[in-house]
């Protein structure tokens, strides 16, 4: 079976209106960029892939991750990580407490070590006890990224994940995401309005809405 993420003959409808039709394979370590005008269904596609499609929509097709059909599985068992533009860190937990949410298993000391290593990896060594409200937007984005990666996802979904960052942070954060995806051979589906994001990703780009819906 093919490694990577296969979006197989997927059709999503809103009521009786066709919204999305897509048939693509995303190879390990590569990024499929999804663009298109507002309201065309980009976020809806990601919600379908990760298993949180709103009941206002109906869908056909299969989602296959590393040869495993995950279409009928609940979100938590699909093995996918998602990042949104709002980083959604829990405000009542420390940075370390937020990262602990990504971790399944391991004893206390091992978890603490993994969190410290994760923070170090994104240039935030020693930030464990910081309140998320006291760190910058770019730093929060990196904490969100590490929280997602600590769960060891097999695919990454990015929904305008870099759009709140200033230009410098945007470039470094997305480089970090793409480098990680390559290093871990993770397929990535990235929704963006930004042509620079698409260029940096270097993979194929599809534009939803180019064909009549
Ligand atoms: N829960 C819902 N119930 C009904 N319609 C919805 C729901 N969520 C989104 N829609 C509609 O479905 C269509 C697709 O929405 P979606 O958010 O996927 O678009 P998008 O391409 O991601 O837009 P944007 O670029 O503005 O984020 C839009 O017409 C939207 O209004």
From TrEMBL:
**Record InterPro entries:** AAA+_ATPase (IPR003593), ABC_SmlMolc_Importer (IPR050093), ABC_transporter-like_ATP-bd (IPR003439), P-loop_NTPase (IPR027417)
- State the source organism's domain of life: Bacteria
What are the entry keywords?
ATP-binding, Nucleotide-binding, Transport
Domain (ABC transporter) spans 2-211
GO function terms (MF aspect): ATP binding; ATP hydrolysis activity
Q: Which PANTHER family match?
A: SPERMIDINE/PUTRESCINE IMPORT ATP-BINDING PROTEIN POTA, SPERMIDINE_PUTRESCINE IMPORT ATP-BINDING PROTEIN POTA
Name-wise, this protein is Putative thiamine transport system ATP-binding protein
């Amino acid at each position: 079976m093919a490694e990577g993420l296969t979006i197989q003959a997927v059709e999503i409808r809103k009521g009786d209106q066709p919204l999305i039709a897509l048939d693509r394979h995303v190879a390990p370590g590569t990024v499929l960029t999804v663009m298109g005008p507002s309201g065309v269904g980009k976020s809806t596609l990601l919600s379908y892939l990760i298993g949180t499609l709103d009941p206002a929509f109906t869908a056909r097709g299969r989602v296959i991750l590393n040869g495993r059909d995950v279409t009928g599985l609940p979100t938590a068992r699909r093995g996918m990580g998602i990042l949104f533009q709002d980083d959604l860190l829990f405000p009542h937990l420390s940075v370390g407490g937020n990262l602990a949410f990504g971790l399944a298993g391991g004893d206390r000391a091992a978890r603490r070590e993994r969190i410290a290593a994760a923070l170090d990896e994104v240039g935030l060594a020693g930030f464990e006890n910081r309140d998320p409200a006291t760190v910058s937007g770019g730093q929060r984005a990196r904490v969100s990224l590490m929280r997602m990666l600590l769960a060891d996802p097999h695919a990454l979904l990015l929904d305008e994940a870099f759009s709140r960052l200033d230009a410098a942070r945007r470039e470094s954060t997305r480089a970090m995401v793409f480098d990680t995806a390559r290093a871990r051979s993770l397929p990535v589906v990235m929704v963006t309005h930004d042509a620079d994001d698409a260029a940096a990703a270097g993979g194929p780009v599809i534009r939803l809405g180019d064909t009549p819906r």
